[in-house]
């Protein structure tokens, strides 16, 4: 299923999206419900976009990179940058579009970035897209000003799950995201896709900045976060992402997210 990102950018809407929006001069806040398999075809916006998935999962392809994102990250997509989105988990996409003159200060905001989704910024985004009448125009302007202020101090996050560009390595990565508990090692995966293990290993390092094993741990934690958010128990999630014991899973999760699975799940 394919759709066009809001606001319209020249390709027709062809997917099921339930949108609530709040419009101001040069600012639009939109909440879009997406299904698993929904895609936003390659497109550009005249405005900057800040995108966030509080639940669900999104693959964002921008320029030569593809990132697999969940609720811990905001995606910053500057005006005029061609990008596409695919959703591998049903959920909600929250976006704020604003004129480039309103973006945070600094040349780094001229480029696509991934920044951390802190609790205050996330609450502001939710408030901007409340159903019904939502906040008043004056409050929406203040919320946007606060959001820009918070973004100006946000550092780029490098702990995202990047996907390899090499199609054979990408196929391995996709299989592991779909079934992170698969215990096969690099030699086994290389044989399955018909290439040498060194070729796959080089592709992971070159395209993601991580070795295959480092990437797999990161992918397991990434999928685990989504399963926990959907209400699965810690014990069940540990097994599904390849851990023999809950204690081993909890330690790995805490090393990745800085908190335990139960506390992560309790976050709003």
Describe this entry's structure for a reader.
By secondary structure, this protein is α+β, with helices and mostly antiparallel strands. It folds into 2 domains: about 1-150, Jelly Rolls, CATH 2.60.120.10; about 165-265, Orthogonal Bundle (Arc Repressor Mutant, subunit A), CATH 1.10.10.60. It is built from 9 helices and 10 strands. The chain has helices spanning about 120-130, 135-150, 165-180, 185-195, 195-210, 210-230, 235-240, 245-255, 260-265; strands at about 1-5, 20-25, 25-35, 40-45, 50-60, 65-70, 75, 85-100, 115, 160. Strands 1, 2, 3, 4, 5, 6, 7, 8, 9 and 10 form a 10-stranded mixed beta sheet that branches. β5 and β6 (about 65-70) form a beta hairpin. The longest helix is centred in the C-terminal third of the chain and has 18 residues, at about 210-230. The model is unreliable at about 5-20 (pLDDT under 50).
Helix content: 25-40%
What value does the average pLDDT take? Answer: 86
- The percent range for strand residues is 25-35%
Just name the CATH architecture of the largest domain.
Answer: Sandwich
Domain HTH araC/xylS-type: 170-267
Organism: Herbiconiux aconitum
Keywords: DNA-binding, Transcription, Transcription regulation
InterPro entries: AraC-bd, Homeodomain-like_sf, HTH_AraC, HTH_AraC-typ_CS, RmlC-like_jellyroll, RmlC_Cupin_sf, Tscrpt_reg_AraC-type_HTH
